[in-house]
Here is the input.
Amino acid sequence: MTVSGDFLAHKTLIGLIGGSDKHRAVITESLMPYYRIYTFADSEKGLDWLRTDRPVLVILDEDTKPLGGLSTLEALIRLPAARRPQILALGAKAESPFLEMAVKRGVGATLVKPFKHSHLLRAVSALINRVVETRWKTVSPLVAAPLLRVTEMFETLADLVGLPAALPTAEALAAGRELAEVARQGLLPELLDALDGHDNYLLSHSIRVAGHLARFGQTVGLKDDSLVALSVAGLLHDIGKMEIPFTILNKPGELTPDDRQVMNSHVARSLNLMARTPDLPPAILAITATHHERLDGSGYPRGLKGEALNKLSRLVGVVDVYCALTERRPYRPPLGSEAALDRMGAMNAALDPGLVATFRGLVLDGLGRRVAA
Ligand SMILES: [Fe+2]
Ligand SMILES: [Fe+2]
Here is the structure.
């Protein structure tokens, strides 16, 4: 058995059973920047491991010993529901008895070897998200509504990347209103918990920013129109990242200056998408345009300073930085709430110190110290 990857405690746990040494090594290399992966050449040892650990997903190669792929698959399917992971079955041929049985028994997903790295990542991510999204059936309807609405909205948008599409204004406004209501009813902790473990970084980040902004906006006395604009902007501010290649967006190492330039272009890309979207309140564009600007002029894209940044821009700056610091990324573990707030407090004049202090109180007292979400 081998264990790979850094930041072990913060990564989603995946098991890989079977396949050649080389195949396991290739899969491990693909997945280890993003997940914690345990690999087993021996299917009995892999099944044994499931007695003690609870991976979200097991990737099973039909080429496994001493139990063959079919028997191992049967054993996985027979596990009690509470202990049964999602299964990704890997076979040499689509018409093999192994993959046919996998499809017939409704296992999570199948891939025929050889497959592209991107197909593997997509399949793994979709299965992890299926687990998280299934949990949404058990949360309050008020919390589930915007989660489902925004997920559907993002799936539609992902299909439109590269096309001259407009954003779904009515859906975004409806979700913004729903999130403002979630915040008003004190349900933000439940919303953040429900997102825990979701593997779509952009979706999860956008909903978290929107939820925190709605709550923060209420706390500082903003009224309905501004609140909805804030939470819709939270949902859409990074939408241009859909056009940024996965390899840059989720790069495990440090970005090169060229990568950084591409990454920073997400602000202009978000604004381009908004420019071809009718009926979007202007405040949403303004918040999006300034969410990476900093009071001391150190931000981008324009290096705006001080008074050039209004209250909404200052609020989004605080929340966006907090959410980014407390999120798990391939290149670093998430910071806890207090550590993130401490870091923000030390950002000198980049963020509005009064707003950072208010937000600190809101997160630590209002949401409870356990919230790193
Ligand atoms: Fe951004
Ligand atoms: Fe952001």
Summary: The first strand starts at residue 2 and ends at 4. The beta strands are 2-4, 12-17, 35-40, 57-61, 86-91, 109-112. The radius of gyration is 22 Å. The CA atoms of residues 345 and 353 lie 7 Å apart.
